[in-house]
Amino acid sequence: MKTNAARLLDAAGIRYSLVPYEVDEEHLDAGHVAAQLGEDIDRVFKTLVLRGDRTGLFVCVIPGSLEVDLKIAAHISGNKSCEMIHVKELLPSTGYIRGGCSPIGMKKPLQTFVHESALLYDSIYISAGVRGLQICIAPGDLIDFIGAGIYPL
After folding, report:
1. What pLDDT digit, counting tens, does each position of 12-54 carry?
2. C-alpha dihedral (6, 28, 108, 105), degrees to nearest 10
3. pTM of the model
4. In b/e form, how buried is each residue of 60-77, taking b as 16+ CB within 10 angstroms?
């Protein structure tokens, strides 16, 4: 199944692969995805949407084993403070649902930061935009394609 994120990558000529996994509605976290894929959780990145006090919505793409550091996120995004958006705001703001939010193909482009550790790997996993499907992509290709900044270690 091709998702909007996959179609956008196809149109840009970017290499990737789609990797399905079994969804468990009770466990939508990156740990479950990593276990289903048989991959290190630090290669499975989650897409988090935050709201800054100055810039509004922005995105952090971080390893599944980490929690977003709100102080760092605020600083790199040009905000004094920030917070995670409520899950009910996710679909209207991005076009995606919890457990299926991709940094590619949101309703409107949002300032995005990819955790620097992504560059340690030849490829990482991100959501393909639906639950049950991941995109395996070179981190540099992802960063270049979405125009992301770096979230420091």
Report:
1. 999 999 999 999 888 889 999 999 999 999 999 999 999 999 9
2. 0
3. 0.96
4. bbbbbebebebeebbebb
CATH of the domain at 32: 3.90.960.10
Give the separation between CA 20 and CA 37, rounded to whole angstroms: 8
Taking the C-alpha atoms of residue 107 and residue 122, their distance in angstroms, rounded to an integer, is: 28
Q: How many CB atoms lie within 10 A of CB 23?
A: 17
pLDDT at 24: 87
Of 140, 100, 135, whose CA–CA distance to 119 is shortest?
Answer: 140
State how far the Cα of 3 lies from the Cα of 134, in Å rounded to an integer.
10
The span from the CA of 113 to the CA of 48, in Å, is 10
> Quick check: is 140 in a domain?
yes
Task: Look at residue 153 and tell me if it is in a domain.
Answer: no
Query: In which domain, by residue range, is 19 found?
Result: 4-147
What is the count of structural domains for the chain?
A: 1
Per-residue pLDDT band for 105 (boundaries 50, 70, 90) equals very high
The dihedral built from the CA positions of residue 105, 42, 137 and 70, taken in this order, carries a sign that is: positive
Residue 42 forms part of a structural domain = yes
